[in-house]
From TrEMBL:
<dbReference type="InterPro" id="IPR029035">
    <property type="entry name" value="DHS-like_NAD/FAD-binding_dom"/>
</dbReference>
<dbReference type="InterPro" id="IPR050134">
    <property type="entry name" value="NAD-dep_sirtuin_deacylases"/>
</dbReference>
<protein>
    <submittedName>
        <fullName>NAD-dependent protein deacetylase sirtuin-3, mitochondrial</fullName>
    </submittedName>
</protein>
<dbReference type="GO" id="GO:0005634">
    <property type="term" value="C:nucleus"/>
</dbReference>
<dbReference type="InterPro" id="IPR026591">
    <property type="entry name" value="Sirtuin_cat_small_dom_sf"/>
</dbReference>
<keyword id="KW-0862">Zinc</keyword>
<feature type="compositionally biased region" description="Low complexity">
    <location>
        <begin position="85"/>
        <end position="98"/>
    </location>
</feature>
<feature type="binding site">
    <location>
        <position position="267"/>
    </location>
    <ligand>
        <name>Zn(2+)</name>
    </ligand>
</feature>
<feature type="region of interest" description="Disordered">
    <location>
        <begin position="385"/>
        <end position="447"/>
    </location>
</feature>
<keyword id="KW-0479">Metal-binding</keyword>
<dbReference type="InterPro" id="IPR026590">
    <property type="entry name" value="Ssirtuin_cat_dom"/>
</dbReference>
<keyword id="KW-0520">NAD</keyword>
<feature type="domain" description="Deacetylase sirtuin-type">
    <location>
        <begin position="105"/>
        <end position="368"/>
    </location>
</feature>
<feature type="binding site">
    <location>
        <position position="246"/>
    </location>
    <ligand>
        <name>Zn(2+)</name>
    </ligand>
</feature>
<feature type="compositionally biased region" description="Low complexity">
    <location>
        <begin position="438"/>
        <end position="447"/>
    </location>
</feature>
<feature type="compositionally biased region" description="Polar residues">
    <location>
        <begin position="53"/>
        <end position="67"/>
    </location>
</feature>
<feature type="compositionally biased region" description="Basic and acidic residues">
    <location>
        <begin position="29"/>
        <end position="38"/>
    </location>
</feature>
Length: 447
């Protein structure tokens, strides 16, 4: 049994949280913190029911049932100015027999303009962005759950018993090949940040971004220049790698080299399989994730973009801003608390294609030209690779290094301790040198 799962199973309340594992969110999806009393040890230190991977499997099958009954996502996406049909929303619970069933339709209330007005009035100076795979589909990276194009709909080639097995740490321990096959497609290097990433970078440039919390593992936030101190990669990234068993760090470039060449990188300390520090189900979230306890109470605007809010504990973050704080959902369909009717006072959503929506938002804010200029200047630069080429170690491939002793210091990392920090410091992979949010966009990019 892995260490995370065992802590999840405990019935007794836990001491103040020091570590959190990734899980699906079938129970907490619609709940505010105050409503989670019956749930087991979780981010609020209250009892939370055990979450299993099969719960996610159930969610996924329920979702496909609901999608059959509704419009395809592409059609829903055409209705950006229309109220979303609860039964048409691929993420809606209303047609899934869920206890949280809503007869009425969540309404889009011209929220984009209202929020743009607040920003222009200077009322939003601590903006928190919560993002998911939907911000990167415009870069050509499929998300998980979009019917037809999402990774979960296209997993036949990985030969796995159920979709989320690909991110299950126990499954990986037994057979890393399915994840490594997927990793080859996801490894940073072949995709570029898109308009949405640069919009968030512009929020930072304007001095308004308190923090971006992303579930994405594609590294595009960093590539577009969002500085590390403004970014929480809650589900890790490919920028570092380590042994999945003893957590001994492993050179990320060598891990990439091995995986891209269909080899299995192995730990030089215990010979177990090395994996990129992407957070699997049942694994700890990075220590940096806990910044949310400071950030969310401070936020004066929350923007939620391109996520189905299905993965806990990340999904519940959106319920932790103050009740007076406006929340703006930009997505193809209503998700999480935005499926409730009526919407919470101060909640706004704009449904449709995310890139189109963000462009309109940027135009309302008068930022479009600056973003375009930023993107143009970025195009002329060679985007630095987050993971550099592996150093040549006397012709050895990483796989051949099995059994080679490491310097003793290599074991002295936080990762070798239970509940230790995972990926909190992204260390040498940093690309960002922008520390002054007011600095010139072009000059910071040319550095
Ligand atoms: P998800 O569950 O696939 O949800 C994505 C959401 O974005 C859905 O609600 C979509 O409808 C919406 N969406 C997708 N494309 C668009 C678009 N063009 N316009 C508007 N809305 C759109 O993915 P989540 O991020 O919610 O789930 C979390 C998982 C996904 C994390 O653990 C990630 O590691 C994982 N993931 C990441 C990537 C990446 O790094 N790019 C890719 C695939 C999966």
């Amino acid at each position: 049994m892995n260490r995370s799962r065992s802590s999840w199973d405990k019935k007794a309340p836990q001491p103040p949280v020091t570590r959190i594992t990734r899980s699906s969110s079938s129970q907490a999806r619609h709940t505010d913190p105050a409503e989670t009393k019956d749930s087991g040890p979780g981010i609020y230190g209250k009892q939370r029911k055990k979450q299993t991977d099969s719960a996610l499997a159930q969610d996924l099958s329920q979702m496909s049932v609901s999608e059959q009954g509704g419009l395809p996502a592409s059609h829903v996406g055409d209705c950006s100015s229309e109220p979303v049909q609860a039964g048409q929303s691929s993420g809606s619970r209303s047609d899934q027999g869920s206890p949280t069933t809503f007869a009425a339709k969540p309404k889009s209330r011209g929220g984009l303009a209202s929020v743009a007005r607040l920003v222009k009035l200077g009322r939003c100076k601590n903006v928190v962005v919560v993002a998911g795979a939907g911000i990167s589909t415009a870069s050509g990276i499929p998300d998980f759950r979009t019917p037809g194009t999402g990774l979960y709909a296209n997993l036949e080639k990985y030969n796995i018993p159920y979709p989320e097995a690909i991110f299950n740490i126990d499954y990986f321990s037994n057979d890393p090949q399915p994840f490594f096959s997927l990793a080859k497609a996801l490894y940073p290097g072949s995709h570029r940040p898109n308009y949405i990433h640069f919009f968030i970078r512009m929020l930072h440039h304007k001095g308004l971004l308190l923090r971006m919390y992303t579930q994405n593992i594609d590294g595009l936030e960093k590539l577009c220049g969002i500085p590390d101190d403004k970014l929480v990669e809650a589900h890790g990234s490919f920028a570092t790698a380590s042994c999945h068993l003893c957590y001994t760090p492993y050179p990320a470039a060598e891990a990439k080299h091995a995986i891209m060449n269909d080899n299995v990188p192995t730990c030089s300390f215990c010979a177990a399989t090395v994996k990129p520090d992407v957070v699997f189900f049942g694994e700890d979230l990075p220590q940096k994730y806990f910044l949310h306890t400071e950030d969310f109470p401070k936020a004066d605007l929350l923007i939620i973009m391109g996520t189905s809010l299905q993965i806990e504990p990340f999904a519940s973050l959106v319920n932790t801003v103050r009740s007076t704080v406006p929340r703006l959902l930009l997505n193809r369909h209503a998700v999480g608390p935005f499926e409730k009717v009526p919407l919470r006072r101060g909640d706004h959503m704009e449904l449709g294609d995310l890139e189109d929506t963000v462009r309109r938002f940027a135009e309302m804010l008068g930022w479009n030209d600056e973003i375009e200029e930023l993107m143009r200047s970025q195009e002329t630069l060679n985007i630095p690779a987050l993971i550099s080429s592996p150093p040549s170690v006397s012709g050895q491939t990483p796989c051949q290094s099995r059994g080679v002793s490491e310097p003793p210091g290599r074991m002295e990392t936080s990762k070798s301790r239970p509940g230790a920090q995972r990926g909190a410091s992204s260390g040498s992979e940093e690309t960002d040198s922008e520390t002054d949010s007011k600095s010139s966009v072009s000059s910071s990019l040319s550095n």
